[in-house]
Every structure is written in C-alpha cells, then in structure tokens.
C-alpha cells in the first residue's frame, strides 16, 4: 500500500469533509488530485479492503433504530437471512451462535415505521422478533492510528 493511500485511510477515519466535493477537499488536504483519491478508493473496494464510505449518525436525530434478534431454525437460516438482507431498513445483519442467532439493526424514519417492519418480519418468517431499542446512546470511537506518523485526530 502506497504512502498516499495510508495517509488517506489514516486521516479520514474521523470525518470525510461535508461539502459538495468531499474527495476534492480530501485531495487538497493531502496534496494530490481528486482522481488520485477516487482511484485509491476504487482499488480498496475492488480488493475488499474497503466495503463502504458513509456517515455514522446519531439515529435519534434522523429517525429511529433498534437492535433486533431472531431465533431462526438452522435449516432456515440462509432463507431468513436473505429475506432480512433484502429489507432496506436493515443493516449490520449477522449470525451468532445462540438461540437468538440472527441479529441486525433496523433504521427508519419513525418508531411506527419500525413497528410496521417488525410486523412484516413476523408475518413473513413466522418468527417473533426480539426488539431491543436503544435506551441510552453510547459513542464508541473505533478510529485508531493505522500507520507510522499517524494523522488520526486525537
């Protein structure tokens, strides 16, 4: 991995610029071209090193969200997971070794919207969703210095 890619990954863990041309702003800060940034991001995505770039938002300011679990019979896990993955409100869907073996986060514009999705999930799968809405938000900063001479803001 070249130095520019390292600096880009290291520096922008904590905030891609919020503006009309964020990749241009990143390039200006790093002393390169917007094309350099886009090329590196595309390469990282092609190799599977980067899955997405997106905001982390305080859900209560933008709508509603809840952690949800399902106890899925193992014979049905692939089919149920595919259905859950198809819902636009779902992210972070993963399997766990537990009676409740499929866990995901639902997000939507309102709690009533989430309730309707939970009802649809129940009707479609025959499984009762365990709905665990957030009571108190906690922000966990997962950014960390990745390379020598890190530029990660402290």
Write up what this structure looks like:
This protein has 154 residues and is an alpha+beta fold. It folds into 2 domains: 44 residues, no CATH class; 75 residues, Alpha-Beta Plaits (2-Layer Sandwich). The chain has 6 helices and 4 strands. Strands 2-3-1-4 form a 4-stranded antiparallel beta sheet. Helix 2 packs across helix 3. The mean pLDDT is 88.
Structural class determined from secondary elements: alpha+beta
Distance between the termini: 24 Å
Could you spell the SSE succession in H and E letters?
HHHHEHEEHE
Overall number of strands: 4
Largest sheet: 4 strands, antiparallel
The number of helical elements comes to 6
Unreliable parts:
none
- Report the principal-axis shape: elongated
Approximate helicity band: 25-40%
What is the rounded Rg?
19 Å
CATH topology of the largest domain: Alpha-Beta Plaits
Mean pLDDT: 88
User: Under the CATH scheme, which class of the largest domain?
Assistant: Alpha Beta
Order the strands across the largest sheet as they lie in space: 2-3-1-4
Examine the secondary-structure arrangement and name the CATH architecture of the largest domain. 2-Layer Sandwich
Query: Per DSSP, what share of the residues sits in E-state strands of 2 or more residues?
Result: 15-25%
Number of domains: 2
